[in-house]
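Hi R.,

Here's the chain you asked about this morning:
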Amino acid sequence: MIESSFDPIYKKILVNRDLESLASNEKETIAVFVAAQELRTREQRETIADMVRQAKQRLHKETLSEEFKERYDIDKWDTEEEIKSLHLNIFKQIPLYAEIILQMKWITLIDHTPMPFWTSDHPINRFNPVKAEPFGNLGLLCKGIGIHIPLSPKMVLSFCDPKTYELLPSRYEIKDIQNVEFENWLQVAHSTRYLFSNTDDFTFAERILRDNPSLREIDRKRIQVN
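And here is the predicted structure, written out as tokens:
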């Protein structure tokens, strides 16, 4: 249902190559699609599993009361069924995520370089150049946050922190290939198994994997639990 509602709006964006012609209800449909698409992937489930495993390991290093152990039964936290339950429970947050996305700065990135934008089996990715240590910085309300989704080999749709990126135009023409490489790096770094391109040149991806061999591993460490 979500995909069927999104499809005609997606085609409209590809033709117009901007966001000016979108009605408010069409933006709402896009926001729901983006929220659902980010949460539905295997990569999202693997990230949840990684977080739970690290939390379990951390708790095993602590001196826990018998009451705590009995009440929370941490040894069962990382079972396949528990991870699946946690993943499905996150879907309840789709309306909230969509509402936040609607309040963000929307920007289309148009590629004028020879290198196409890639996509992957986890196409929607977050990036934040603003450090917030020791806290995380990838929450939708974090200062500097940006969400990136490739729509075609020549177009990326980005949703950004409206304060940090207030002065950016709603349409940005990319002529520097490094900007395209950054978008493609997001796809390589956050995919689970598959990258997709309209060409068969994945030289850049191979270089990333040589420099970061852990990205090849499905059960790699994805987050840091302090």
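One quick note: The chain has eight helices and seven strands.

Cheers,
M.
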